[in-house]
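[Automated response] Your request has been received and processed.

Submitted sequence:
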Amino acid sequence: MKKAIAFLLLLVFILQTFYASAFTVWFYANRKAIAQKHCINKNRPGLKCDGKCFLKMKMQQTEQHQDEEAPLHVKQQLEGSPFTPVADTPALLIPLNASSYNSGYRSFYQYRHSPSIFHPPLKA
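Generated structure:
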């Protein structure tokens, strides 16, 4: 059951990812039929459209559909970061000839070495 669900989700993900490429391949495979049925410019053969207008229209619809589904804002990160900004000064305000570099972040990493536990093996 888990394999079937995993396969179904993988199939949906692949279809969503490669929809535009698959539609383009389908378009070039059926170009003559599309030019006869769906081409907007079939009354003007001098343009040599051959259904490209239909392909362009479908690609724009796909992009609009993807833009509607995309979130409008980025989720805020709820978990804490190992580095906390000390100041909100941009990095461009730090002079280039400064003798010491202050990154603007405070590290909360602490190193506690215990020589009683971590040591090389003793020779007998």
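Summary generated for your ticket: The chain has four helices and two strands. Residues 2-69 form one domain.
If you did not submit this request, please reply to this message.
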